[in-house]
Amino acid sequence: MANIVAIVGRPNVGKSTFFNRLVERRQAIMNNEPGVTRDRHYGYGEWIGKHFTVIDTGGYVEGSEDVFEEAIRRQVKLAVDEASVILFMVDAQMGLTGLDEEFAKVIRQSKKPVYVVANKSDTTDSAFHEGEFYKLGLGEVYAISSTTGSGTGDLLDEVVSHF
Ligand code: GDP
Ligand code: MG
Known about the structure:
One of its GO terms (molecular function) is ribosome binding. The chain is of the alpha/beta class. The chain has five helices and seven strands.
């Protein structure tokens, strides 16, 4: 079975920043479903000798608000269908938002391993908000910073334990 890690979450939480830190080499954007896969990027990563593909899901939730639930459902479903492990990224500086809860509703329907990743955990504000993410009901919250790299090693240790 392929080792595929999908990074999902609302726009601006830092998915692409983490993706760029993780991948060694980018694969061409796959485009077999126009308008749907357009914004998904694939890359290859490695951690403690384990190799995996990373999917960065795009920001097509932005824009028209009335279609956002449908867009979330589609984004998450596509990523989750392909993934072996799901990273659900939230913004520790912003705290829990309604949109995060919408994502969580869809993610909870998956049987695959999910890690809640509280990104931007690099200020005192972020430490204040971290506890809120336990309300998502998705278990342990991994506080990381995609810009400094803090916490990413512990998260990746867990992720590659599935491979
Ligand atoms: P995406 O829309 O989820 O892909 O988010 P981006 O990766 O584009 O990041 C959105 C913004 O958050 C950018 O301005 C990033 O520089 C910033 N950002 C991403 N990760 C971190 C982090 O760990 N700490 C801080 N302080 N800012 C971050
Ligand atoms: Mg992005």
